[in-house]
Design goal:
Blueprint lengths: L1 H34 L1 H14 L9 H16 L1 H31 L1 H5 L5 H33 L3 H24 L3 H26 L12 H35 L2 H25 L3 H9 L4 H37 L6 H17 L3 H8 L4 H25 L1 H28 L3 H9 L2 H17 L5 H23 L2 H13 L1
Helix pairs in contact: 1-2, 1-7, 1-10, 2-6, 2-9, 2-10, 3-4, 3-6, 3-9, 4-6, 6-8, 7-8, 9-10, 9-15, 9-16, 10-12, 10-13, 10-16, 11-14, 12-13, 12-17, 12-18, 12-19, 13-16, 15-16, 18-19
């Protein structure tokens, strides 16, 4: 039953990712044209600021499953009820703190955004922030129930709720945009969906899972143990917030909302890029933990690390080279003529982030070996350095400067320091890894030259010709990879499902 739940949950999870990607590609350009650059930038700016409140969770949600299993096995259902009561209380307190801090931020939005906003934008930012803060507080309370559902391995219910949430968001938002509600309508829909999901989870937990809460005799020793466990998860949360939200905040404060909009369009593409990579590596996580538990050799881990990295490079290489060759035309058709600078910003984000994305299986190897603390500390130092690098870059080059600052810190942290750590401490043969990755150089070169010729003889004039050009390039890329780049094992991954039919 649990295997069926896992399989169905994975299938729905992929469907949800597909909906999110399609929503980004189809709904986003419509939304951009209705909102306009200034209001879209304002929405992105306020969202980037409010998202910092998510740090209040301090990673506690990640620790629930571990302690749930421990308490249920050792102490029985009454102790689980105590655990539920303590977690629910923690998340309610966090939600209350979120409302207080968010309320203060809303009132003093002028101090947060400085002189980067006009009086009208400042007024609207307060409305957006107030609604987003309420949404964030409700999300914290919802965490108490989603954690319980996950601990019972009810993956199908959880993923189907996420699927319908992703599906309904554009359908509910678009009418409000057309009616003139703008960004306020967008955050109202988001909050409505959060309330709906919360209610569904509450009903499911009480009716189906028979959840119980006991609000007495809290184990404060457990609280200390949880904090030790979640500390480095909390550090990673801080790093992610700095890397992917800080640039928008700095741009809004120093330059203005139009610059945030330019950056936001590129960041949207970067999010899709991240999603594709994660969907490939996530299915190998159980295998990594099993191999480490069985004390498999570092050589075998290196082989798997390299195998998955090559598969990720094949997929991401297609996306990256497509963007390098045809991204300027895509931005023009997708976002509009006023977003040309977003192409360069996208390059500064996508190129350096490719290195950690084709190595993200290494994160799971670190965790399985309990050697992930160094990564958290290094990433925190690099993320803080990003602040000091980005500010002068923004003052000099605007939105492009923000991306340059992020690019520099990503290359140093992910490209240099972590590769040394993988080789010296984790036991992975990084020289072998990069030797195998660089074997793709001839196939990539052939594909890029072919793409340049395609671009010369099939110029892009509209959406139809763009789709045609991309289709021709993808086929040429696939042919180049198949004939020159891929090894027999990688070809079998493609051939075996086809042969079974």
């Amino acid at each position: 039953m649990k295997i069926d739940q896992l399989k169905s949950g994975v299938l729905v999870s992929y469907a949800t990712q597909g909906i999110n990607i399609l929503s980004g590609l189809i709904y986003t350009p419509i939304m951009l044209r209705i909102l306009g650059r200034s209001e879209y930038g304002l929405y992105q700016l306020v969202y980037s600021v409010v998202s910092y409140l998510s740090l209040l969770s301090m990673g506690f949600a990640s620790s629930y499953i571990r302690f749930y299993s421990k308490y249920k096995t050792k102490y029985g259902e009454k102790s689980v009820a105590k655990l539920n009561g303590m977690f629910f209380t923690i998340f309610c307190v966090i939600a209350a703190i979120c409302l207080v801090c968010g309320g203060a931020m809303t009132i003093r939005a002028d101090l947060i955004f400085g002189g980067g906003l006009t009086p009208g934008e400042l007024w609207k930012s307060r409305i957006l922030m107030a609604i987003m803060v309420v949404n964030m507080a409700l999300s914290f309370i919802n965490s108490a129930f989603t954690c319980h559902i996950t601990s019972h391995e009810k993956f199908f219910f959880q993923r189907i709720v996420e699927f319908f949430r992703a599906l309904m968001n554009p359908f509910l938002t678009l009418p409000l945009l057309l009616m003139g509600y703008g960004s306020v309508g967008m955050v109202m829909v988001t909050t409505f969906l959060t309330i709906s999901v919360l209610l569904m989870n509450i009903v499911y937990c009480f009716k189906k899972l028979k959840i119980q809460f006991y609000f007495h005799e809290f184990d404060f020793g457990l609280l200390k143990e949880m904090w030790v466990f979640t500390f480095f998860i909390f550090v990673n949360m801080i790093v992610d917030q700095i890397n992917w939200s800080l640039d928008k905040f700095l741009l809004g404060r120093i330059v203005g909302t139009s610059a945030v909009a330019l950056y936001g369009v590129a960041a949207q593409l970067n999010t899709i890029y991240l999603t594709v990579s994660t969907s490939i590596s996530s299915v190998f996580i159980p295998r990594i933990n099993f191999m480490v538990a069985k004390e498999n050799s570092d050589r075998e881990l290196t082989e798997l690390f390299t195998k998955v990295g090559r598969i990720q490079f094949i997929v991401l290489g297609m996306l990256l080279t497509s963007y390098i060759l045809f991204g300027r035309e895509f931005i023009g058709l997708w976002a509009g003529s006023g977003y040309g600078v977003s192409y360069q910003i996208g390059l500064f984000l996508l190129i350096p982030v490719t290195i950690p994305l084709i190595q993200n299986l290494g994160i799971e190897i670190q965790r399985a070996k309990n050697l992930h603390q160094f990564r958290s500390i290094v990433y925190l130092i690099i993320a803080v350095s990003n602040i000091f690098v980005s500010i002068p870059c923004i003052r000099r080059w605007g939105a492009e400067g923000a991306a340059v600052g992020t690019m520099i810190t990503l290359l140093i942290g992910n490209g240099l320091i972590m590769n040394i750590y993988y080789h010296k401490k984790i036991g992975l043969n990084i020289f072998y890894y990069w030797k195998e990755i660089l074997k793709f150089t001839p196939s990539i070169a052939v594909a890029v030259v072919t793409g340049i010729l395609i671009k010369k003889f099939l110029p892009v004039h509209n959406t139809i010709t763009f789709i045609l050009v991309i289709a021709v390039y993808v086929m040429s890329y696939a042919a180049s990879m198949w004939l020159i780049g891929m090894n027999e094992s990688e070809k079998n991954i493609v051939k075996n499902p086809l042969m079974k039919r």
